[in-house]
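Pasting as-is:
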Amino acid sequence: MSNPINNTVFDSRDLIEYKEELENDILDAYIDWAENHNEYKEEETEELEIPDSFDEIEFLNEESFIVTCSDLIEEYEDIEDFCEELENNSSDFKYGESIIHESYFEEYCEDFCRDCGYIADNTPAIIENNIDWAGIAEDMKIDYAEVEYNGETYYIR
């Protein structure tokens, strides 16, 4: 799975799945690294434990592993922080919540209003073309939390 974060809207469950995939990638890399370490270590060097799960990894003390997988670990830590902040701001994060990029929020609000039936399908163009979607989006922000990730703003309910 590729990183689901985009400049429109994505589902929190996809982000959780991506975070778990990164955990598995780090676990696999650590197991390979630890097995290699154990195979080629000097006699006086202590063997590394081979973990069964991501939570058992003790790579924080293994500087050479961190250097080897620094990009992967950095991405994981960024995603983990983002997930934590989103979860702190949305009780439904684990169950599926839309995460909307700031640049798409106005369009998202328009779609939301249409989906909820606030704008009828037969609304005359003279009215529909004069709806202040920017103002509506600004008013709807009161129901959303604002979360930053890599210098970008996202909204979650």
